[in-house]
Amino acid sequence: YKDGENKYFQLTIDGKTGLIEELYSKEVGKKILLRHPYVDTQPIGNNLFQILLEAPHSMSAWIIGEIMRVENLLEGEVSGWRKTPVRQYVKVKRSFMNSEIEQKIILWNELDYIEFETTIDWEEIGNPEYGSPMLKVAFTPMLRNPRAYYEIPFGVIERSTDGLEKPALRWVDINNGEDGFALLNDSKHGYDVCGSTIRLTLLRASYSPDPIPDRGVHKVRYAVYPHKGGWDEGDVWRRGAEFNNPLIGYLVTERKTGEKEPEERSIIRFDPEKVMVSSIKFAEHSMDIILRMYNIFEKEVEISLEVDRSIERAVETNLFEEEMKGIEYKDREIRLRFKPHEVKTIKIRFKGG
């Protein structure tokens, strides 16, 4: 077995299969993933890749066909843990049919989720006689009677745990109100949840109208994030945004003569941090700043918005940036009240341009 640990997790990887044997969350205070969760039951795979063969059907690019069989990918070539100053990781390589998967399972020193950096050389080709191979990855956390919540544009929706494929933006969370488990990703939008098993669809080999739509090399990042409480208390909405918009670090070796920029600076601050920013841009017909935000919660939220320079004018607009009403402000601060799920667009002009 390959064991890794940071301030948030203790993680054990099966050295023969590359599957997660055990995951203990120090924040939650529980084992979250376990290969043998219950006596007298079959083992459950976590980070389990599966090939599902869809029966031949029309419009295969748009419709998932009936699943004829499922093959679990249980063989893998696993490296030892490699450590750097900011992270540690295990490499797993898998070959199946005509394709290959190379993956890094990453524990970051200061991040409370586990990242899976995945490269897939997908060489499967479906056809009307054979059907369509599909690749999924599955996790089964130790949660009793969870409910499933999917991120959608400007909000979250609860959906049934019936095992059917359903769309999401950046994450799906399953939780029972006490504990939860979120599966984040940076580029895929098909999930299914059956009981406490959550799967992410990675690739398909549809054949109509395009006979080879996904053939080639694909890079996918996904992550698992165990947490306390529901998706809202557990800050799943924030982790999904952070995972898709990571901070980019630059090494600064020296400061310019006379430079007065502070060591720390934020162009926008919210207090409390309870709204999401979906857009910061110049206005279409001026150099004013457009700031679009939304309340992802099912309750009213009141916030203070502080920018990094003095405001000359602030107005609320519609989505076409047509002005609707003025907004009160005080120097660099604006107070805003959001109804449940409300989207607001404001236009700001700063003093001095």
Straight-line distance between termini: 60 Å
**Total number of strands:** 29
Name the average pLDDT: 94
| Level-1 CATH class name of the largest domain | Mainly Beta
Query: CATH homologous superfamily of the largest domain, by name?
Result: Golgi alpha-mannosidase II, domain 4
Structural class: mainly beta
> For the CA atoms, what is the radius of gyration?
23 Å
Helical proportion, percent range:
under 10%
Ranges with pLDDT <50 over ≥5 residues? none
Number of structural units classed as domains: 2
CATH architecture identity of the largest domain: Distorted Sandwich
**What's the tally of helices?**
1
Helix/strand layout:
Elements: E1 2-5, E2 9-13, E3 20-25, E4 30-34, E5 48-54, E6 67-72, E7 77-78, E8 82-83, E9 87-96, E10 99-108, E11 114-122, E12 132-139, E13 147-152, E14 155-159, E15 166-167, E16 171-175, E17 179-185, E18 190-194, E19 197-204, E20 216-228, H1 236-244, E21 268-271, E22 276-282, E23 289-294, E24 301-307, E25 311-317, E26 323-326, E27 329-330, E28 333-338, E29 343-350
Antiparallel strand pairs: 1-2, 2-3, 3-4, 5-6, 5-12, 7-9, 8-9, 9-10, 10-11, 11-20, 12-19, 13-14, 13-16, 15-18, 16-17, 17-20, 18-19, 21-24, 22-23, 23-29, 24-28, 25-26, 25-29, 27-28
Please explain how this structure is put together.
This protein is mostly beta strands. The protein folds into two domains: 2-244, Golgi alpha-mannosidase II, domain 4 (Beta-galactosidase, Chain A, domain 5); 268-350, Immunoglobulin-like (Sandwich). It is 3% helix and 50% strand. It is built from one helix and 29 strands. It has one helix at residues 236-244, and strands at 2-5, 9-13, 20-25, 30-34, 48-54, 67-72, 77-78, 82-83, 87-96, 99-108, 114-122, 132-139, 147-152, 155-159, 166-167, 171-175, 179-185, 190-194, 197-204, 216-228, 268-271, 276-282, 289-294, 301-307, 311-317, 323-326, 329-330, 333-338, 343-350. The strands form five sheets. Strands 7, 8, 9, 10, 11, 13, 14, 16, 17 and 20 form a ten-stranded antiparallel beta sheet that branches. It has a six-stranded antiparallel beta sheet with strand order 6-5-12-19-18-15, with no helix packed on it. Strands 22-23-29-25-26 form a five-stranded antiparallel beta sheet, with no helix packed on it. The longest helix is centred in the C-terminal third of the chain and has 9 residues, at 236-244. The chain starts with a strand and ends with a strand. 32% of the residues are buried. The model has no long low-confidence stretch (mean pLDDT 94).
